[in-house]
Amino acid sequence: MILTRRKLIGGIAAAGGLLSGCDKLDQSPGFKKILFKAEDAHRFLQRSLSNRAALAHEYRPDQMSPVFRTNGTNNPGTPEYQAHADSRFANWRLQVDGLVRRPLALSLAQIRSMPTRTQITRHDCVEGWSSIGKWHGVPLKLVLDQAGLRSDARYVVFHCADLFGGQPYYESVDLIDAFHPQTILAWGMNNQLLSVGHGAPIRLRVERQLGYKQAKYVMRVEAVDDLRHVRGGKGGFWEDAVDYEWYAGI
């Protein structure tokens, strides 16, 4: 039997009751040492033995969870975001820039008019819970193709509207995950537009990674050549704040 990262972390949580939630992460040095030693081992095995181009399992509609919890922030709560929400994101624009030949500013209507992928997948949170939901969105590849990635681009960074400790949330993936067919900028969930709690108007779904990689409230997509120049240099908010692993494959 293959020991998945989710089962490994879930076992640690069950043994010690240590994981309190994606937005209330334990700061214990002992916990972090145990967790990230395990993650180092998993990352080595994952990258050595798995095919990162393989598809995440997709489920039937009757297997969807009756309740899908929200992870992280429930509402960014800033005046800017509230103004967008009040107008149903009519004036919101997704900025696509960085190492691209054609910077974009896409409205929600433009994004929804692009080819849509719908997938029913399982969300695995680092705190140990899982839910199955249906996601509707545009493949990230199509957006990046429209912007025209430059040859020196290596990573894609997602800048978000929600704040943690006064800092905007952010995450990143490499081009393998950016061009994976199940990596989408989701604008809908369970046959409806995204709710505020689930990341309206746009959230990332990168289905073969854990929940903290699924950035919500995405405002800007930036192509970069190196993560060392992005915030704390490790590629994401939790990676910089509490040494979470950048590669969260499951």
From TrEMBL:
Its domain of life reads Bacteria
SUPFAM superfamilies to which the protein is assigned, alphabetical: Oxidoreductase molybdopterin-binding domain
Residue span, Oxidoreductase molybdopterin-binding domain: 89-226
Family matches, as InterPro entries:
OxRdtase_Mopterin-bd_dom (IPR000572), OxRdtase_Mopterin-bd_sf (IPR036374)
A Pfam family of the record is: Oxidored_molyb
PANTHER family membership: BLL0505 PROTEIN (PTHR43032:SF2), PROTEIN-METHIONINE-SULFOXIDE REDUCTASE (PTHR43032)
Put simply, this protein is called: Molybdopterin-dependent oxidoreductase
Native species: Sphingomonas tabacisoli
